[in-house]
Amino acid sequence: MKALYLFGILASILALTDGVTFCYYASWAVYNHWGGEFHTSDIDPYLCTHLLYAFAGLNPDTYEVKILDPSVDLCIDDGLCGFSNFTALKEENPELKTLLSIGGWSEGSKNYSIMASDPDYRAAFVSSSVNLIQQYGFDGLDLDWEYPTQRGGTPKDKENFVTLLEELKAGLGDLLLTIAVSAGKPTIDKSYNIPGLSAVVDYVNLMSYDFHGTWEHFTHANSPLFAHPDDEEHGLEFLNVDFAVQYWIQKGCPPEKLVMGIPLYGQGWSLIDTNQTGFFAPAKAPSHGIDMGYYKLCMGQISSDDWVIVHDESMNEPYEYNLSKDNLWISYEDPDSVRLKAAYARDQGLAGCMVWSMNLDDFNGNCGRPYDLITSITEELAK
């Protein structure tokens, strides 16, 4: 039974001791309300081995790196000094590594495709990026291009991406270079020369989440560790963490460079038939926006008895539903499920785990200990 995975494989540990924990920080969390406001001052500098500041962007006119929110990222005009405060966390923990992440979903792909195709544009991007991270004391750069060849890109992006990474690494010297990559098989096949990029970067951050969501008309897990028993008959056998991890390794990514992503947020639907409340239940997008961060979901469970929490024996992730609140059905992670994922990463000999994003954890400890999900991950990696 896959739900007993953690206990069944302890005898065959490949073993990493104290794997890395990459924690993305979403800088726009300073604008959150209702208990979700999060600043660099809320970061525990001992919680993660690597902190990644999301995001900087790309100037479509000059193809240099672009500051996306100066009032948050910089100190000028009474700004919040995000960059400086972020890297200053190393004064408290000298072992901490801080990286600036460039890109993200909202940045799109088209301009990155244009930049990567032209030697002069690449040079402008590399030079400006290196200067920026050196200016603010970052230990490296994380490139989150979503995705080469996709969303306005071209087939040449697959090789141009490797060329861009080679030039970035040359410019960075001893500083770190990491990338965030897709876990979806169609994108993996189209977008990545895996041996080529793996030879250049220090770590590959696998975004192994958002396998399922409201673009589908049925309920499922956001980040299933393994396939559901009924996935194959629905053609969904590739949409799980285990497949993505093994596929990246099979295609040429050294496991010791692969960092497995874990979401600290849920995916939710509204049930169409309240008599069907399990996986593959007919569902639609909720009629109003919902904060799916773990800090919010756990508080909802504490404040209302209407939530039914289910741990399906065929899966490793919990879900909850509430028939008195828009018939909501939410797949999420809890301390037990993230431990299972961290144990998988450790036992597969991976570099460690990555989370998106640390500000979505229960950082104030309203439901238990502060940062319960990330702490559970780091504890499991260290076993």
The largest β sheet comes out as: 8 strands, parallel, barrel
Helix share of residues?
A: 25-40%
CATH names the topology as TIM Barrel
CATH superfamily: Glycosidases
Shape-level CATH architecture: Alpha-Beta Barrel
Strand order of the largest sheet: 1-2-4-5-6-7-8-14
- CA-based shape: globular
Task: Give me the secondary-structure topology.
Blueprint: H1 5-8, E1 20-26, E2 50-58, E3 65-66, H2 70-73, H3 82-87, E4 97-103, H4 110-117, H5 119-136, E5 140-144, H6 157-172, E6 176-182, H7 185-191, H8 194-198, E7 203-207, H9 241-250, E8 258-263, E9 267-271, E10 283-284, H10 294-303, E11 308-310, E12 319-322, E13 328-331, H11 335-347, E14 352-356, H12 372-381
Parallel strand pairs: 1-2, 1-14, 2-4, 4-5, 5-6, 6-7, 7-8, 8-14
Antiparallel strand pairs: 2-3, 9-10, 9-13, 11-12, 12-13
Helix pairs in contact: 4-5, 5-6, 11-12
